[in-house]
Design brief:
182 residues, 2 domains, elongated, 5 strands, alpha+beta, two-stranded antiparallel sheet
Length: 182
């Protein structure tokens, strides 16, 4: 579709081959287009490298390897992206944000983040624990600790994480609920 659009524009009277054009697409289409462009360009290079005089034979294994290489590079680029961190004073504000962004963060029928309950006894009684997974288990966490693991586990299956955290774990008034997503 992108190639056809470019070809159709060339027929226009005011076409300038030096000017860039803007093509507006969905994110899904853009990702697919970039992937197919990468594969087709590299298939041509590979065919030419195999036989300069008659570059026409590519195996299914070659094609599969190019797809794997593209996906691997793309995952690396995603890992370099910074996630969005939204901070809220209450769980209700966080839930409202989730409901407004439900399609991006889950699905139209997703329930969203579960209501957190504070610790009921011990040193941190009345404070909210955060599940830091492999990074440190479940415990009361600081802003810095949550920021350090902000990218951990975000993917197509886990589109967001919610963490209660404190600027100072000894000051209950510094509590914030963070939702982290792309």
């Amino acid at each position: 579709m992108g190639g056809r659009l470019d070809g159709n524009i060339k027929k226009e009277e005011n076409y300038d081959s030096e000017a860039s054009i803007n093509v507006y697409t969905t994110t899904k289409f853009n990702k697919k287009m970039r992937k197919m462009r990468y594969i087709s360009e590299n298939l041509a290079k590979l065919a030419y490298e195999k036989d300069n005089n008659n570059p026409s034979f590519i195996t299914k294994a070659d094609y599969t390897e190019l797809k794997r290489r593209y996906d691997s590079n793309n995952r690396t680029q995603d890992a370099d992206r910074e996630p969005i961190i939204k901070k809220f004073k209450t769980q209700e504000e966080l839930k409202e944000y989730f409901n407004q962004n439900k399609n991006r963060l889950g699905s139209p029928t997703a329930r969203g983040p579960q209501k957190r309950t504070p610790i009921t006894e011990g040193e941190h009684c009345g404070k909210f624990p955060a599940n830091l997974n492999r990074s440190g288990g479940t415990r009361v966490a600081t802003y810095d600790e949550i920021y350090a693991i902000r990218k951990h586990g975000l993917n197509n299956t886990h589109k967001y994480y919610v963490y209660p955290c404190y600027q100072d774990i000894n000051d209950i008034t510094t509590l914030e609920f963070w939702i982290i997503h792309y």
